[in-house]
Model the fold of this input.
Amino acid sequence: MAGPELDEVTGTYTTGHEWDGVKELNNPLPRWWVSVFYACILFSIGFCIAYPAWPLITEHTKGVLGYSTRNELLKTVAAHSEMQSEWRTKIAAAELEEIKNDPELNRFATRAGAAAFAVNCSQCHGSGAQGFVGYPNLNDDDWLWGGTLEEIHTTITHGVRNTTDDDARYSEMPAFGEILEKEQIDEVANYVLSLGNLEHDASKAAAGQEVYVDNCEACHGESGEGDIYQGAPKLADAIWLFKGDIEHIKSQISEPAHGVMPAWGQRLDEVTVKELAVYVHGLGGGQ
Ligand code: HEC
Ligand code: HEC
Done:
């Protein structure tokens, strides 16, 4: 490699680098580039003084402006909860009906209720409250325990068949496997299907009517309309809490499942429970 030499055409020294006869001139850096370079250094010094920048062993330099992203977040959160606390105070003071009838309160309560639902309820009732087998759909107007604001509020507050709340909604369908003959269960299951005009064996259903009147009517109603005071589902429809095929119906009659829902009044504050009631009531099936 040759050392630097004077390039005759430009009158500038080369750097001494050469690639296949092409030599690099040792021109000074452009002035604009150098200015930007120094400006960047100055800026970074200023930045390090003003803002948190350098990691130390357990902490970091704080900067004279006292800025931190965490503080900014806390400020935003504080501002929002201030805004919310105004609404929450109003909701705490209002009757459920008043919340429902005040468009602004209703909107706020519904949104807050939807957020609380996503956190606390969706794992059982589904993210769209569509339900799963054994976990009721909350969008429809088919209610186990009643679909008015008050009734929904009570169900959410005290829950169903839990052991933690003395006021939990309670009822228990007897296990008819120990009471009725297999044949009677088959017959009454067909009768249940006939109540909803679903596919069934007509002669079995006719025999099942008597079994139904004797054993089931007290809870499920004369024509299968259900009873919200006992959480007994309506049977004269195609909406099933469990599954609506003959095998599942027979198994529910023989060995009934007993759905349990936690008492949310013990876990959430009263305002949140109200918001949830307004949200669930507004899903479409509220009465
Ligand atoms: C651990 C599962 C579970 C969770 C979590 C849960 N539920 Fe339930 N929920 C149930 C079950 C099971 C039933 C049906 C009980 C029965 O069979 O009578 C039910 C019933 C209901 C009912 C009565 C429906 C009707 O037809 O009368 C409402 C309203 C309700 N839940 C709202 C909520 C809300 C709001 C939350 C969240 C705060 C919630 N649930 C969380 C399991 C759950
Ligand atoms: C003491 C009241 C009571 C009596 C009596 C009773 N049931 Fe029930 N039944 C219930 C309750 C409550 C449920 C809901 C269980 C739950 O929520 O977990 C239910 C659920 C059912 C279901 C499931 C409905 C669905 O939507 O999935 C069927 C089917 C049913 N009962 C049929 C019968 C038949 C048939 C008889 C009579 C042989 C009978 N029940 C007697 C209270 C009763």
